[in-house]
User: Fold Thymidine phosphorylase from Trebonia kvetii.
Amino acid sequence: PDVVSLIRIKRDNLRPLTDPEINWLFAAYADGEVADEQMAALLMAIYLNGLDAAELRAWTGEMIASGERLDLSGLGRPTVDKHSTGGVGDKVSLVLAPLVASCGAAVPMLSGRGLGHTGGTLDKLESIRGWRASLGNDELLAALAEAGAVIAAAGSGLAPADRRLYALRDVTGTVESIPLIASSIMSKKIAEGTDALVLDVKTGSGAFMADQEDAVRLATVMAGLGAEHGVRTRALVTRMEAPLGRAVGNALEVAEAVAALSGDGPPDLMEVTLALARHMLDLAGIDADPARAIASGRALDTWKKMIKVQGGDPDAPLPRAAHRQAALPAPGDGYVARLDALAVGVAAWRLGAGRARKEDGVSYTAGVRCLAKPGDRVRAGEPVLELHADDPDRFAAALEALDGALTVTGEPPVLPPLIVAQVG
Ligand code: URA
Assistant:
């Protein structure tokens, strides 16, 4: 094959690429025989015309085979992980990994940093004094054996083709493609070596896949890919119309996650976390009640162990922002009917919680606290948000992002269920 013909085939939607063609493409790209601009053109053709099921299976297989696949079979415990497509205030991973580990599974959660308005799990954990995201494979296995759960940066050996392809997609307008997203996420999760996987595919204003039908399609494609590659996979589609919990921002979210592990989590966060935990335990074949693991203190103990194994001090005070400002006063007495997740996510980002470019750092202290959430009663003039920043000059841009983010109604709103669909 030659790459220009492959690009033309996908561009004109003439026929699916064959397994040998896809195999050749990845080898030639790794060797430098196929250039970045040629791969970018092919990605755009795929963005426009898609991949069928056989192409997607082969494509994902090549992404996995571009690197190593971890072997976790020596742990002697069933392994199960969770991946979220990302949301606002989504600190579920921080609670879930130690929670499910405290019930007897091993949770090898290789995770990422935030980009855009959604936070990254590693950025959140790095607000804990001493905590290290990068572990070598031996350290990763040792941490898993000791704590039962590890949340760490995916090493460069896992699905390296995805790293290169994602960087190209990021600068060529080809991120938002269901087959490309599915192969990107699933190749990393399959290479991580987990036996089972639960996906939390977010839908709504603060999600990557705002449209619910798209989210269900993405969930279905990812669950199918997992099954084809021998990973028991189930997906929940959950709503991301309002921030999850009350805290948005790195250290603020760690504090809320610790509260959740201590039995004092906000109801929406607990609903999603416990549902995901039950599915993870089910796929792992473990009969345990995660709510009891929290009530007994075992989940919190596992959290402390997990943080310590990676050099962190779970008892150290979390950093706090130097400046706070009240925002979004309620326009009248009533109930919060809508608090837009995207607007709050963008505000937290502008306050410094997120990064504009991959190379940027984040502020651990910046973020937003939701003083009221959808369904809560408010009085006229009462602020619904509290903004946190180290640099008070950032408040103005955050306030601008929040314009129109709040709806208050006279009657209590009917809130739709958080979990909207299950696949697999
Ligand atoms: N997250 C990923 O890891 N890959 C994508 O393509 C999109 C989101």
